[in-house]
Automatic annotation (TrEMBL):
Source organism (scientific name): Streptomyces akebiae
UniProt entry keywords in alphabetical sequence: Signal
SUPFAM superfamilies, sorted: alpha/beta-Hydrolases
The UniProt record lists the keyword Signal: yes
Name used for this protein in its record: Lipase family protein
Domain of life per record: Bacteria
Residues in the signal sequence: 1-24
Statement: the UniProt record of this protein carries the keyword Signal: yes
C-alpha cells in the first residue's frame, strides 16, 4: 500500500534556484524575472576548429557501438584516470545510424585483465549548445565556464573504486545539429551503445564480459531508467548488474507542463524540450509553429547552457513562443508520452532517489516510477530524502547510490523486492 508522506523543508538547504541565480549573476546571465517574451541578448559564440567533433561523411558502416574515433585528453579535470574522448555509432528512433560523442574514464589503478566493471554515466541537463557537451568539459583547455561539470564527484567516486566510467554526450550534443533533449528512448540507446563502444576500445580493460552499471540524475535519471528498460531487448549481450537513477522525470508530458513558464522550475528547460522533441520527431514541424519572437528565443535556447536555461527565460511559456500552443496539440502530446517510463521492467535491480522538496522534478514523478517498476516485478530500493530540492537531492543521494551500484558490480546481490527508505 502506498504510504502518505509528510514533506517539510529542512533549514540550511540551499535551493537550486538560489544557487543557479547566484551563478548566473556571476556570469552576466539575464535575470530570472525578465518579462515574458523579452529576448535575451546572446553574445556571438566562439568559433571552434576542433575537427574531432565533426563526424565523417558518410558515416562508416557498422553496428551500434562501433567506435569511430578516440583521442586522449592530456590535461583533464579528472584525477586518477586515463581520460579519452570518443565518437561512436548509435541509432535514432528510426533505427538510422547516428554519430554520438562521449568520454571514457579508465582508472589508473585498474586491475589487470579485460573484464573490469564499467558504469555508463547518463548526464543531467547541460544545455543544447555543442559547447555544453559533457565530454568537452573534461578537457581543461576546452571547458565551457557556462556549463560546469557538476557530476565530477560522482564519476571520481567510481574511478576511486576501480570502476571505469563511460559518459555519453547524447545524440546531437557535441556534434553538429540539434539534440534529442529529454527524449528518453534516444538517451537510452545512446547510453547502451556507449558501453558497447567502451568495451571495444583497445586498452580499456573492458570486454563483453564486463559487469555493467548505469547511473544518472535528472535528465540523466531519465536516460539511466530508459537504458535499463531498453537493455533486455536493445542490448541483451550486456551484463547489466544495476541501475542508479535519481530525480527522474518519468512522465514527460506532466514534466513539461510543470516546467512551462515556471521560474522556480526553469522555463528554459521546457523550451529546450521543444527542440529535443522536434529533432526526434521532425514531422512535428516546430519551425512552422514558432512566432517571430519565439523563433528568436528558441535560437537563443539552442546556443545556451544549463545555467542560462534556468535563469534567463523568466516565466516565458510554450504558448507564448508557438501559435497555436503545441502543448495542446495531440501530436505533440503523443510525442511527449512516448518517453513515459515504467511501462517495462528494468533489466537489473534499481536504486531510485528523490528529494521531497524538488521544484524542478516533483517527487510525484519518482513515486510513480517506483510503484510502476515494482508492479512489474522489479527489485527497487527507493530513497526518499526529506526537505531537499533538486541539486541538494543529487548531492545527498548520489554517494550512497554509487556505493550500492559498486556492490552490484562486485557481485553482491541486491535485496529482492521493493523497499522505500528515508521516510521521516
Amino acid at each position: 500500500m502506498r504510504r502518505c508522506r509528510v514533506r517539510k523543508a529542512t533549514k540550511g538547504v540551499v535551493s537550486f534556484a538560489t544557487a543557479l541565480l547566484a551563478l548566473a549573476a556571476g556570469t552576466g546571465v539575464a535575470s530570472a524575472t525578465l518579462p515574458p517574451l523579452t529576448v535575451p541578448v546572446l553574445p556571438a559564440p566562439p568559433l571552434s576548429d576542433d575537427a574531432f567533433y565533426v563526424p565523417p561523411s558518410p558515416l562508416p558502416d557498422g553496428k551500434p557501438g562501433e567506435v569511430i574515433r578516440v583521442r586522449d585528453v592530456p590535461l583533464s579535470s579528472y584525477q586518477g584516470a586515463h581520460v579519452q574522448q570518443i565518437m561512436y555509432l548509435s541509432t535514432d528512433l528510426r533505427d538510422r545510424l547516428v554519430p554520438v560523442t562521449g568520454m571514457l574514464l579508465t582508472p589508473l589503478l585498474q586491475k589487470p585483465g579485460n573484464d573490469n566493471p564499467v558504469v555508463v554515466g547518463t548526464p543531467g541537463t547541460r544545455g543544447l549548445d555543442d559547447g555544453c557537451a559533457p565530454s568537452k568539459q573534461a578537457d581543461l583547455l576546452e571547458a565551457n565556464p557556462s556549463s560546469p561539470d557538476y557530476e565530477v564527484a560522482e564519476y571520481q567516486q567510481l574511478v576511486a573504486l576501480g570502476i571505469s566510467v563511460v559518459v555519453t554526450d547524447y545524440e546531437g550534443q557535441g556534434t553538429p545539429g540539434d539534440s534529442s533533449y529529454l527524449v528518453g528512448p534516444s538517451e537510452g540507446r545512446n547510453a547502451l551503445d556507449a558501453v558497447r563502444a567502451a568495451e571495444r576500445i583497445n586498452g580499456s580493460g573492458l570486454s563483453s564480459n564486463s559487469p555493467v552499471g548505469i547511473a544518472g540524475y535528472s535528465q540523466g535519471g531519465q536516460g539511466a531508467a530508459w537504458a535499463a528498460e531498453l537493455q533486455p531487448a536493445y542490448a541483451p549481450e550486456l551484463s547489466l548488474r544495476g541501475v542508479l537513477a535519481g530525480g527522474v522525470p518519468a512522465d514527460m508530458l506532466l514534466e513539461v507542463n510543470h516546467l512551462n513558464g515556471n521560474v522556480t522550475g526553469g522555463a528554459g528547460f521546457a523550451l529546450s524540450t521543444l527542440v529535443g522533441l522536434n529533432h526526434a520527431y521532425p514531422e512535428l514541424d516546430l519551425d512552422g509553429r514558432l512566432t517571430p519572437e519565439g523563433r528568436q528565443i528558441i535560437n537563443h535556447v539552442k546556443q545556451s547552457c544549463y545555467i542560462e536555461d534556468f535563469a534567463a527565460f523568466g516565466t516565458t511559456t510554450v504558448g507564448q513562443v508557438t501559435n497555436p500552443d503545441v502543448l495542446s496539440d495531440p501530436a505533440w502530446q503523443r510525442a511527449y508520452r512516448a518517453s513515459l517510463l515504467g511501462t517495462r521492467k528494468p533489466g537489473a535491480p534499481a536504486y531510485l532517489y528523490h528529494g521531497t522538496a524538488d521544484t524542478i522534478v516533483p517527487i510525484a514523478q519518482g513515486d510513480m516510477l517506483y510503484h510502476d517498476w515494482c508492479a512489474r516485478g522489479a527489485s527497487v530500493q527507493y530513497e526518499v530524502i526529506p526537505g531537499v530540492e533538486h541539486i541538494s537531492g543529487f548531492v545527498a543521494g548520489a554517494p550512497a547510490g554509487i556505493q550500492w551500484l559498486a556492490d552490484r558490480l562486485a557481485g553482491k546481490q541486491a535485496v529482492a523486492g521493493c523497499h522505500e527508505v528515508g521516510l521521516p
